[in-house]
């Protein structure tokens, strides 16, 4: 097995590194979960896009470089190693865009993707409902046929960054008489500022106001904003989740950079006699490298399908362990400091929940990868 990169790949890496070295803001941007930080991150997306670094794996026609996933993974390594800002456009780029590439029309791709690539339109994901999280197929928000389109009604919740986003994509029940809950669903895009939409921020423990719930009351969506055939929403949504849990949401580059920061923390805070903590730091480095190799393999075996659940369980538990190790290194007051490790730790607690809980991922792994019998639900 040859794990070395080609000369073209190394040249691509060097070009990315050079650009990032010159352009990554010297000071971290304010949190993208605040209005001020959201605007600053949107401007950063525009800067990335102007140099065609915002969506490197997309075709050039939509603002990408058409370089494929292997070089996207390299770009991600350089991006996080350079300490570049978090991506405020991630719901659009990582979830909606792959869905449009697989199921959208040419017209939808031409209309939606360029402004997503520049950060001019930021997208929110509107799937979850108060009574439909893990059991997403039980969702009750409705899409009712009207002249030239659909009227949306109902409530969506836990929508990341929806308080400041421009548009959303979600699944809605369009045929309440369908014989099974996951039939009769339709996948649509809608405007968060359309008449009939109320966006209500959900207070978070850290006080940052971007998380939101959405109330929809007869919101008009034209036919051109339906993705795929009406009634096929479930099948289309399931192809989206593979992207979210698998390669895109948490690329190995992020963890390689975090493991590197952890080693530097060990060098300043570590106690050489504490072999248990030293082993946990070593585990973090080994874990990041193992995830890098596993993900490179997954990228070569697309589509990932149920295998993406392995990635999701791994990165979410890894992230938690890494941050716990950092806080243990920082000592008793580590959680009280307002630093990046404490903030990262709080967010890592949500990793086993969002993008589908790890209990659900383990069910998928048991049934679809290991062929175990279906559990009782
Ligand atoms: C930080 C964060 C960001 C999010 N962002 C978004 C977003 O942008 N858009 C969006 O649509 N949603 C978003 N979500 C919602 C997320 O997808 C849901 O929280 C998740 O799917 C779980 O649903 P739930 O919260 O309703 O929990 P429930 O489904 O009620 O689950 C509660 C508990 O029961 C367990 N459980 C449920 N069913 C089973 C089963 N069959 N077998 C074993 N255990 C089971 C679950 O694993 C969990 O531990 C976000 C959530 C978080 C925490």
Describe what this molecule looks like in 3D:
The chain has 377 residues and is an alpha+beta fold. Helix content is 47%, strand content 14%. It contains eleven helices and eight strands. It has a four-stranded mixed β-sheet with strand order 1-4-5-8. A four-stranded antiparallel β-sheet has the order 2-3-7-6, with no helix packed on it. Helix 1 runs parallel beside helix 3 and helix 7 (252-269) packs antiparallel against helix 8. The model has no long low-confidence stretch (mean pLDDT 92). The structure holds flavin-adenine dinucleotide. Residues 125-128, 133-134, 158-160, 350, 353-354, 356-357, 359-360, 363, 377 line the site of flavin-adenine dinucleotide.
Task: Give a short overview.
The protein is an alpha+beta fold.
Please outline the helices and strands:
Layout: H1 7-23, H2 35-50, H3 68-81, H4 90-103, H5 106-118, E1 123-126, E2 142-146, E3 149-159, E4 167-173, E5 185-191, E6 197-201, E7 212-222, E8 226-227, H6 233-248, H7 252-269, H8 275-300, H9 308-330, H10 340-348, H11 358-369
Parallel strand pairs: 1-4
Antiparallel strand pairs: 2-3, 3-7, 4-5, 5-8, 6-7
Helix pairs in contact: 1-3, 3-7, 4-5, 4-6, 6-9, 7-8, 7-9, 8-9, 9-10, 9-11
This protein binds flavin-adenine dinucleotide.
């Amino acid at each position: 097995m040859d794990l070395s990169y080609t000369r073209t790949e190394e040249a691509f890496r060097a070009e990315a590194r050079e650009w990032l070295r010159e352009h990554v803001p010297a000071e971290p941007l304010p949190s993208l979960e605040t209005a001020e930080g959201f605007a600053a991150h949107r401007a950063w997306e525009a800067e990335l896009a102007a140099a065609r670094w915002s969506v490197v794996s997309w075709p050039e026609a939509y603002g990408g470089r058409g370089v494929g996933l292997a070089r996207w993974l390299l770009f991600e390594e350089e991006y996080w190693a350079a300490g570049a800002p978090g991506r405020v456009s991630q719901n659009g780029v990582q979830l909606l865009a792959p869905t449009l590439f697989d199921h959208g029309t040419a017209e939808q791709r031409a209309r939606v993707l360029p402004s997503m690539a520049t950060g001019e339109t930021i997208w929110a994901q509107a799937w979850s409902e108060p009574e439909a999280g893990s059991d997403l197929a039980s969702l009750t928000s409705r899409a009712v046929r009207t002249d030239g389109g659909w009227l949306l009604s109902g409530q969506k919740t836990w929508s990341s960054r929806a308080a400041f986003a421009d548009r959303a994509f979600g699944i809605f029940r369009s045929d309440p008489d369908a014989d099974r809950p996951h039939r009769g669903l339709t996948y649509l895009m809608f405007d968060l500022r359309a008449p009939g939409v109320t966006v209500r921020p959900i207070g978070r423990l850290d006080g940052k106001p971007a998380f939101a719930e959405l109330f929809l009351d007869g919101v008009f969506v034209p036919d051109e904003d339906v993705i795929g055939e009406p009634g096929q929403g479930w099948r289309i949504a399931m192809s989206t989740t593979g992207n979210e849990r698998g390669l895109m949401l948490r690329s190995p580059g992020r963890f390689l950079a975090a493991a590197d920061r952890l080693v530097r923390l060990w060098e300043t805070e570590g106690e050489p006699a504490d072999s248990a903590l030293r082993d946990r730091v070593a585990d973090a480095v080994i874990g990041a490298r193992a995830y890098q190799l596993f993900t490179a393999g997954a990228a070569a075996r697309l589509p990932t399908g149920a295998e993406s659940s392995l990635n999701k369980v791994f990165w979410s538990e890894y992230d938690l362990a890494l941050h716990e190790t950092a806080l243990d290194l920082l000592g008793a007051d580590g959680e009280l400091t307002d630093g990046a490790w404490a903030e990262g730790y709080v967010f890592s607690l949500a990793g086993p929940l969002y993008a589908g809980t790890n209990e659900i991922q383990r069910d998928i792994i048991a049934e679809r990868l290991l062929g175990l019998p279906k559990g009782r639900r």
